[in-house]
From TrEMBL:
Stated name of the protein: NAD(P)H-dependent oxidoreductase
Gene3D superfamilies per UniProt: 3.40.50.360
InterPro entries referenced in this protein's UniProt entry, alphabetically: Flavoprotein-like_sf, FMN_Rdtase-like_dom
Ranges for domain NADPH-dependent FMN reductase-like: 9-146
Superkingdom of this protein's organism: Bacteria
Length: 204
């Protein structure tokens, strides 16, 4: 592998910094697993930026998506983290997917999309069911714009239905979540290493 791999977590919580965020906690745990493998990591909250609605790379008029996009394109691994609201991904997460749609129009001279060869892993947290459906929707959308999803490439935590305990309030990390975080990180690291050394074939 040439060079150090990098990972970016996009935290799609609805809570601006510095409010406590269970999404930040679970995404951070996945990043910690990646750091243990030598990956350079960072996490940002999308809601802290003025990301305008739209499907282009720059919507102008103060749009701050280009600031985020540069870091997204540069990262080898994207940790796409969203809370569950009303059984669905957050509105912030949906906006990120809509903005990533612009990457379908970006190709190099060989027809390869800008995000092809990058790895993405969905991370979902919430106090209600819906994680599997969100992972399916997010995974399909990220794969559509060029990302590769590794085997067992997602992790989630769902609290008891109609209760008020957040993931960040748990006394200790659930063993099943810890084990899956490790699997996600290792599989993402493995696949990112392979694709960095041997990129996909030209599209044309």
């Amino acid at each position: 592998m040439a060079g150090t791999l990098t990972a970016l977590a996009l935290n799609c919580t609805l809570k601006p910094s510095p409010q406590p965020s269970s999404t930040e906690k679970l995404a951070g745990e996945v990043l910690a697993e990646l750091e243990a493998l030598g990956v350079a990591t960072e996490q940002l909250r999308v809601v802290d930026y003025d990301v305008r609605p739209g499907v282009t790379a720059d919507e102008g008029d103060g749009d701050e998506w280009p600031k985020i996009r540069g870091r997204v394109v540069a990262a080898d691994i994207l940790v796409f983290a969203t809370p569950t609201w009303m059984g669905h991904l957050s509105s912030v997460a949906q906006r990120v997917l809509e903005r990533l749609d612009a990457e379908l129009s970006v190709s190099d001279d060989n027809g390869v999309k800008a995000l092809t060869g990058k790895i993405a892993v969905p991370v979902v947290v919430g106090n209600e069911d819906g994680a599997h459906a969100i992972i399916a929707d997010v995974g399909q959308a990220l794969n559509d714009v060029g990302y590769t999803i590794p085997a067992q490439g997602s992790t989630y935590w769902n609290g008891e239905a109609m209760q008020t305990v957040d993931y960040r309030m748990l006394d200790q990390q659930p063993a099943a979540v810890a084990a899956q975080n490790t699997v996600v990180a290792r599989n993402a690291f493995h696949l990112a290493s392979l694709l960095k050394a041997r990129p996909y074939l030209p599209a044309v």
